[in-house]
Amino acid sequence: MRAIRLTSPRKHAATATALTVAAAALTVAAATPAAAISTYNSAPAPERTEVGALVVTYDHDEDATTPDRVDWFCSGTMIDRDTFLTAAHCTTDWPAGARFHVSLEQDVRAALDAAAREHPGDPHAVAAAVAVEGTVHNHPAYPGPSSDTRDISVVEVPARKAAERWDFTPATLPTAGQLDALGPRGLDGADLTVAGYGTQEAQRGPGGHTHPGGGVRMKAPTTFNALNKAWVRVAMTAPQGNGGACYGDSGGPNFAEIDGERLLVGTTITGDSPCYATNVAYRLDTPGARAFLAPYTDLP
After folding, report:
1. Which of 23, 129, 215, 294 is most deeply buried (CB count within 10 A of its CB)?
2. What is the mean pLDDT of the chain?
3. Tens-digit pLDDT profile for residues 196-216
4. Residues 192, 240: contact at Cβ < 8 Å?
């Protein structure tokens, strides 16, 4: 989902279907085909192998002893061989003992359901079957003011284990101030794409709006909307040929083709609650974002 509002955080899409592994067979039997991003102007993204899902094992029954649940909750991107970039609101406010993992599976929902059938009642085994466990580092000043919430975090994973599981090319980050140098005029002509595992846009039904789907890596085109000190805003309006992000896409990438190079220019944080109009991404070319990332990856 998304964080700050601006409107609503695009964070815990999976909380509505969080998998209690002891009851996995029932969960799987009731499952429907999953999709992600918007249903309009979007497509599967098997080629975006650097884009992954944040998988969390955590305690839900409040006995504070052992985790009893496991599911995916947000999206993110590998920015080098051992660093997964996501949003701080995805990796904070969890019960004590929560453990974080990264999966680069194309269909993480199906992979989790299959692992739950194979390892009933064992959330750690389920997570290990589909993901690599890592160590979270949140921005120390999160949450900051609305002008710059510092909503950024990384999960460091063992590079060897990740390479054994998946073949991927890490995303390329922008140079310092690159979006400012381009300005609105330059960004207006850029090819922009959002990707992630999130749910679909709001659909009306009995009881109000729902956001179905989620758990499959998808992509959609967007167009430039506005540039702020810490944010790049993109339009995801269907009539313009755009798609867009929704709940569960938090931390996921916003790519821009600039001078023939695909750059990871921002990470999804927030937007309009029905997921039809605007995606708000945390810029990665700013001094604050670069200062946070510098200890974990080589910056261009």
Report:
1. 215
2. 86
3. 999 876 566 676 655 556 899
4. no
Q: What is the 3-state secondary structure (H, E, C) of 52-65?
A: EEEEEEECCCCCCC
Task: Check: CB of residue 274 under 8 Å from CB of residue 167.
Answer: no
SS3 216: strand
Distance separating alpha carbons of residues 25 and 22, to the nearest angstrom: 8
Q: State the Cα–Cα distance between residues 193 and 262, nearest whole angstrom.
A: 10
pLDDT at 3: 28
Using a cut of 0.70, tell me whether the model's pTM lies above it.
yes
Q: Is 121 left (phi over 0), alpha (psi -120 to 50) or beta?
A: left
- H-helix or E-strand spanning residue 208: strand 208-210
Long-range contacts of 287-292 (CB under 8 A, 24+ apart): 287/176, 288/148, 288/150, 288/230, 289/152, 289/230, 290/176, 292/139, 292/150, 292/152
80: left (phi over 0), alpha (psi -120 to 50) or beta: beta
Q: Give the whole-angstrom CA distance, residue 255 versus residue 257.
A: 7
Residue 178 phi/psi, 5-degree rounding, is: -65, -35
265-274 pLDDT, tens digit per residue, is 999 999 887 7
Show Cβ contacts of residue 294 under 8 Å, excluding neighbours closer than 6 positions. Answer: none
